Amino acid sequence: MLDILYFASFREALGQSQEQLPLASYKTVSCLLDDLATRGDAWQHALSANPNLQIAVNQTIADRSTQLNAGDEVAFFPPVTGG
Amino acid sequence: MADFPFIKVQADDFDLTTEVKGLREGHKDIGAVVAFVGTVRDINEGEDICALELEHYPGMTEKALESIRLQAHERWPLQSSLIIHRIGQMQPCDQIVLVAVASRHREAAFEAAHFIMDYLKTNAPFWKKETLPDGEEKWVDARISDKEAEAKWLPKNP
């Protein structure tokens, strides 16, 4: 399984903060994103057509080519604005 | 969750005097303390702000802040350092963030505090949401100037 987390404007646009998906065919973050983007316009807009998409795998900044393994925690969020 | 004693992510406010005292405790070789306090403005990008909400990524936030703090210790000779970042609901004039750094001499403390804040702005997973006077809520956009501020600390190519 993979734990998927969504934060801030993504959490609101996608209507959920977390979900679990079977690892199945997701070898990389890119494969996962391609699948999520088929869920509809909001998903396509936030995850696929978004040059500002930020990705973390196991709480470390990652990118689309990062490989996924069972039990990984994958997070998607917009650019950070703390401080 | 790993425990990082020099990182605090909390809903509660903080007291600068108490925190700086704690930072200096047990060190007789400190000659300089630089503390930066970030506070909530009542105006942002020309709009009045009534309230601010801070969301974060529990677990990754603490790791990211500790990583930034350790990078500062690698780059400058520091005796101690502390990062506090608040989360949840805040009002204009509230304190949001404290970065406090102690070293033997002032230059290292000034530079390290500046570095930590610049990196925190672009690398720690916090997100601000503003409430405007008409009740509208708005996520704050990241600023290009923050990326530029971070870039000035990157090693320069010869």
Overview of the molecule:
The complex is a heterodimer of chains A (83) and B (158). Chain A has helices at 8-14, 29-36, 41-48, and strands at residues 2-6, 18-21, 54-57, 60-62, 73-77. Chain A has a five-stranded mixed β-sheet. Chain A has 83 residues and is α+β, with helices and mostly antiparallel strands. Chain A contains three helices and five strands, in the order βαβααβββ. Chain A is 28% helix and 25% strand. Chain A has one domain (2-77): Roll (Ubiquitin-like (UB roll)), CATH 3.10.20. Chain B is an alpha+beta fold and 158 residues long. Chain B has one domain (7-149): Molybdopterin biosynthesis MoaE subunit (Aldehyde Oxidoreductase, domain 3, Alpha-Beta Complex). Chain B is 32% helix and 33% strand. Chain B is built from four helices and ten strands, in the order βαββββαβββαββα. Chain B has helices at 16-24, 60-75, 106-123, 144-151; strands at 7-10, 32-39, 43-44, 47-48, 51-56, 78-86, 88-90, 95-103, 126-131, 137-139. In chain B, the strands form three sheets. Chain B has a four-stranded mixed β-sheet with strand order 1-6-8-2, with helices on both faces. The longest helix of chain B is centred in the C-terminal third of the chain and has 18 residues, at 106-123. The chains are: A alpha+beta (83), B alpha+beta (158).
What is this entry, summarized?
Chain A is of the alpha+beta class and 83 residues long.
Write the layout of secondary structure elements.
The complex is a heterodimer of chains A (83) and B (158).
Chain A lengths: L1 E5 L1 H7 L3 E4 L7 H8 L4 H8 L5 E4 L2 E3 L10 E5 L6
Chain B lengths: L6 E4 L5 H9 L7 E8 L3 E2 L2 E2 L2 E6 L3 H16 L2 E9 L1 E3 L4 E9 L2 H18 L2 E6 L5 E3 L4 H8 L7
Parallel strand pairs in B: 1-6
Antiparallel strand pairs in B: 2-8, 3-4, 5-7, 5-9, 6-8, 9-10
Helix pairs in contact in B: 2-3, 3-4
